[in-house]
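Exercise 7.
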Amino acid sequence: MVNRFLRMLKNYNYFKYALVKYKRSSFNRKLNKGKLILVDERHRGIGKTTMMIELANKMDYGIVVGNQMTASSLLDQDKDLKIYRLAKNFTFELQGKDEKVLIDESVEPIMIEVLKSELPRIEICGGFIQNYGEEVK
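Solution. The predicted structure, written as tokens, is:
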């Protein structure tokens, strides 16, 4: 009985690992193509932030975040990142910039539209966005 349980646990862990590896490679392909990827709680812990940091460093992109806590967390991981905070009535960090950016999932979906309409010199080159049941254009 114990051996059977251990075999099942081993198979479960392998399946979980394979699924995470598949999702990570799928997200990496989409991110490198410049897409905004809808994510939710099912996508926790698969390395989205690491993928975004690696791409930002490789392509010299900035990263747009929705709050100071996320900005601090990203800067703790890599001090050389260009981080811009974006929230309602808080767009001044991006005013006048001519920048290619990635979007972090902490940015509210409505702010993506604000970014596109009010800051046309900012080019969105991909990222992650929370799936609140709305379609991303």
